Prior knowledge:
With 344 residues, the protein is of the alpha/beta class. Helix content is 57%, strand content 11%.
Amino acid sequence: MRIKPDHLSQHLKKQIVPLYTLFGNESLLVIEAADLIRSIAYEQGYTEREVFTVDQRFDWSDLQHASSSLSLFGTRRIMDIRIPSGKPGKVGGKAIEAYCHALPPDTLTLITLPKIDKQNQSAKWFKVLENTGVMIAFYPIERTQLPIWIEQRLSIQQQKVNADTLQFLADKVEGNLLAAHQEIKKLALLYPTGILSFDQVKNAVLNVARYDVYQLSEAMVTANIVRYARILTGLQEEGVAPPLILTTLAEQIRTLIFICKGLNAGKPSAQLMTEARLWGDRQKIMLAAARRIGLKSLTLALLHAAKIDRISKGVCKGDTWDELLQLGRTFAITRPNTIPFTLD
C-alpha cells in the first residue's frame, strides 16, 4: 500500500505496520521519514535495532538468519535494511520476497532505497514490498513549490520572511534540499524568532544551489532566460561537460519540432503527446513552447545546436558556453499564435 509523505505522521499515530519501504532521490526527506518511523517505534517498545547495508559483498543469508532468530533481549526490534544501489540483484530479490512472505514477529522492518525507475518498480521483489507493507515515494521538491517548503520550515522555528526573500532563498538552495535544510537551521541559530529582513538572510545564506541539465532544459522551454542563465552558470562552475548539456537541449528541440510538424499536419495534440512520450504538466509546457516559437525558429535552434557541437569539438571557433546561452535566448522570442494550443 502506498501513502503520500505528508500522510505518514497521521498514519503512525493510528498504527505501526510491520514493514515500511521508503524510496526516492531526495535523501533529506527519506532520512526524516525514517527517523520519524524509528522514533515512534521506539516509543512503542521497539528498542533493539539491527542495521543491514546491502552492497556487492552482502550475504543475504545474514538477513534470513537474523529474521529467524529471536530478539537478543526478548524485546521488539527494528530491522533497518538499506539498499543504496536500489538493485538487490536476482539473489537479493528472491531473499526480499521470501522475507516479506514470512515477516519476523515483534519486528518492524524499514527498507530504504534510492530513486527506482518505472521498469524496476515493476520487478517482482518491488511489487511484493508494495503489497506487503506501507510504501512511500519521495520526489524532488519542484521549483515552484520550493518557496512554500522553505516557508513551512521557517515557521517550524517561528521565523518568517517576505515573498521576495523567499524567492531569493529558493534561488540560492535550488536542487540541494539537504543544504537548504542546513541553511534554514543556520538562520535559527543566528537570529531570534520573528520576521527576518532580506539583509539578515542574504548575509547568512550561502549559494548552495545545485542544478542539473533537466532543470536547464525546463528553463529553456519555458522561456525563463534569467533562470536559464543562472543554471547554465551553475553547471559550468560544477564542471558539467558541454556535450551532456547540448545532448539534452537538442533532444528537447527535436521533440518540439516533432510537435510542431504534427500540429501543422492536423494531428490531435493528445496523440502527439503520447507519441512524444510526454505526460502530465510536461504536455502543456511543450505545447506552449511549440505554439510560441514555431517550426522555423526551432529548426534554426537545432542548426545552432549543431554549430555548438562543432565548437565544443574544436572544429569551429567560438565560445561553447556563450553559444549555449544564446541558444537559450532563442526560446524567449514570442512568435505569432499560428499553432492551436489545446489538449484534445
